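RETRY 2/3 - previous attempt timed out on the joint model. Re-submitting the same 760-residue input unchanged.
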Amino acid sequence: MEKLLLTVCLAMVHCAVFADQKAVKLRTEQDIIAHVAKMTLEEKVGQMTELVIDVIGHWEKGNFVLDNDKLERALIKYKVGSILNAPGPVAQTPEYWYKTISTINEYSIRGCGIPCVYGLDQNHGTTYTLGGTLFPQNINLGASFNPELALKAATITAYETRASNCPWTYSPTVDLSRDPRWPRVWENFGEDCLVNAVMGKTMIEGFQGKEKNIDRYHIGTSVKHFMAYGIARTGKDRTPSYLPEFELREKHFAPFKACVEAGATSVMVNSGSVNGIPMHINAKYLTQWLKEETGWDGMLVTDWADIDNLWKREMVAANKKDAICMAINAGIDMTMEPYDLSFCDLLVELVREGRVSMERIDDAVRRVLRMKMRMGLFEQPDTNPKDYPEFGSAAHRKAALDAAVETMVLLKNQNNTLPLQQGKNILVTGPNANSMRCLNGGWSYTWQGKDADKNASDKNTILEAMQQRFGKDNIIYEAGVTYNNDGQYWEENEPEIAKAVAAALKADIILACVGENSYTETPGNLDNLALSANQRQLVKELAATGKPIILIINGGRPRLISDIEPLVSAVVDILLPGNEGGDALARLLAGDENFSGRMPYTYPRHSASLTTYDYRVSEETGIMEGVYDYNAQVNVQWPFGYGLSYTTFAYSNLRVDKSEFRNGDILTVNVDVKNTGNRIGKESVLLFSRDMVASIVPESRRLRAFQKIELKPGQQQTVTFRLPASDLAFVGIDGKWHLEPGAFKLQIGNQHCTVTCLAS
Ligand code: BGC
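RETRY 2/3 succeeded.
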């Protein structure tokens, strides 16, 4: 009898827990408020939880399959609101994604009536979908100084991501790449905050579309990683940053502000600490600055396991429960757990104990549901690949090729070594010459990008593209140095430099392709900023043959090459141009296309002289009277904004409509730009300013605006910038913006003028 009763009870519990829910339809803010008021605490906490897909399935004969019991536990018992990542994490077909995510949605709706929001790092195209389009990485888009390319790349990526039934990406990344040692330099648009802000908000428009409610060809975004992630004191990933708050607000906050004002659906938080406090518990920055000051109603998600990191790595909490309490109270709305459901139980306890208020929980859940509503998930939880015929199309591939062409930077071209003449014998050498992995970098088919050669076998490496463009008979290939693709990203095989030197003797010219193998995040940490010793030795021994060398730099951050740069005739930095990078480079080298990329970061010359273009003026002029003169000149390999073309541009007649101005005015700045060479070319016109005297040490220069134009030979154009005077202000030590009276220098190309701010 007792046994029977127990069985009946268990069956009732099962029914109570697993009874199917009706699909919820939330169409307005009122619907959201009303629905949250009806939800149980467990349902609410479930919506605040994100798990990695590995938790709800297992591997069978090399394939990842969803597992019924695990799905029931996560999505029906715990009502988890979000799943992320590719299993493995390796790319899958659109059909696989469709089946997988629609099954997850089915369970989620059965669990609490609310579809899941699935998220993928589609960081430079469809990272995690096979057959999709891979664009240049963001660092390249930064080098293009052309927001239209970012718009197109994001629009196509959104379309192809919806073709995979995925509505959400952890992109764009707008950390500033201000430390060349950092392994995530290439995920951003470079070192400048304006470039990151403009590219970031343009990408939001491309991903999400123009409307607040996102249609089924667009996706939600998660701007990352809020904030000051990229300037760790150690130069290593996920380690502490220390910086004055005025710089935090003026530079690091700026691109996030621009993105949330552009309607970003969510923001992901910096894994590290800033000035001693882990960002995940910093209520001032998460809630005050990001949410309250801007009025942003989007959703804040943690980065990977970052609540656990609060007590396991950062040691600011004694246990997981305290860590959850601190993070949720600071403003976190969803936690990327990603393995552990104890988050749900502990957060329920925290609310019951009064340590986290129901108001905070309701606010977080409303933010999650609002995001799901804007993504259209309540109306149509799934999108089917058959409705996306342009997935991986030739037109998308062409867009990636055009983007790659505009992002490569010509840094040196002695005696017009380039364009290359047809019919010459070219030795193609170096570890980056025949590798799709190197062209793409990380976040390419797999997290570390290791399988790109297998997955992009239909695309051309530099070697293959050179063979196609210049004729197989004219190309000799001898790598000289190769990466050990089974080892750590920096590992190289025993070099065979003598073979490359022997091959060079048969060639007229050498294309030496050097740089880095792919890496992502912490595995890309670095001990030595110099290019590898083997690769530099290769270039030195090749130079000894007397044959001219074109150096192709292909990597995610600037590796020092000051000892080999003088030995080569030409240098092209292709950064990480993606799947079409080989073809783009061959076309540029042949002169079919013209170079127009500019350095998105300062390329250092020496390991102990690391700086950014907007250094403070006193870093430069080091005269100490009466002791001895010392020279603290900033000495870099190539400055931010530097880049050559096959044509030349002359700047003249810089003029401003007002020589004196007050706060609130708009300055109209004009400059004439003329193509004085004999080839069509694109030019990035960069407007810099310098505050001549200020109450905190002013910066050498600040980029205030940029425009990319195209001019035919002999053509002249007047470029106009409308510059609000407030753009010349800086944040003082009081944390407020100041536009101080006095002189400002404006500079475009070689043109300068001075304007004066009057006391208001
Ligand atoms: C990275 C994020 C990424 C997340 C999800 C983390 O390790 O820092 O950039 O979006 O994983 O894959």
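The CA atoms of residues 51 and 339 lie 6 Å apart. Closing ticket.
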